[in-house]
Specification:
The protein has about 190 residues and is mostly helical. Helix content is about 80%, strand content about 0%. It has nine helices and no strands. The chain has helices spanning about 1-30, 35-40, 45-50, 55-80, 90-100, 105-120, 125-145, 150-175, 180-190. It is elongated, with a radius of gyration of 19 Å. The N and C termini lie far apart (about 60 Å).
């Protein structure tokens, strides 16, 4: 029994450090990530940080994967909530736009973009970045297949890229960006 509690404590400590890392990256950018800022945000000691994550690359990689796991789970729950609705393409595109609009403008949304840019600079982070986008592609493939679109796996990458680009534009400009119309253009083009 004590072993289970100990293992749960390690998992929660690791998760606290990873969430603190995402918070610091969102606030300061990857270049502003320091051990001191992470331990202050996580409420752990420097020794605890370095015990769990001996390198910053490992820390960033695991933070990216945690974000992707939680984000895809959140999006999958939204999809599951509408699975029995038999949505049309237009309704699905409108739902995507609503989800994007409900996202807050804040550091939590900036962190993944910062990490993806860092992965472009650091080849050691690219595998984690690829895994993040693979999770998005897998979710998009399932949704596009449920909508009856041909070759959903081929279409998933462009759909994910469009949504990610629109979200980046929204964050960079501070204004809502319509997503339904460009998404519909892409989906209708795929139908041929």
């Amino acid at each position: 029994m004590a072993g289970s509690a100990s293992a749960a404590g390690v998992v929660s400590t690791r998760a606290a450090i990873l969430r603190a890392t995402l918070k610091v990256v969102g606030e300061q950018g990857a270049g502003g990530l320091t051990n001191r800022r992470i331990v202050a945000a996580a409420g752990v000691s420097l020794g605890t940080l370095t015990y769990h994550f001996p390198s910053q690359t490992e820390l960033l990689r695991e933070a990216m994967l945690l974000f992707a796991e939680e984000e895809t789970a959140k999006l999958a729950a939204i999809v599951e909530g509408h699975r029995t609705d038999e949505l049309s393409l237009e309704q699905a595109a409108t739902l995507v736009e609503q989800v994007i609009r409900q996202l807050p403008f804040g550091t939590d949304e900036l962190a993944p973009h910062e990490l993806y840019l860092q992965a472009a600079r650091d080849p050691d982070l690219r595998e984690a970045s690829e895994r993040c986008f693979a999770a998005y592609d897998e979710l998009a493939t399932a949704i596009l297949g449920a909508l009856g679109l041909p070759d959903p796996a081929r279409l998933a990458g462009p759909v994910v890229a469009l949504i990610a680009g629109l979200q980046l534009r929204r964050l960079a400009t501070g204004t809502d960006v319509p997503a339904a119309e460009p998404l519909m253009m892409l989906l209708h083009g795929a139908r041929g």
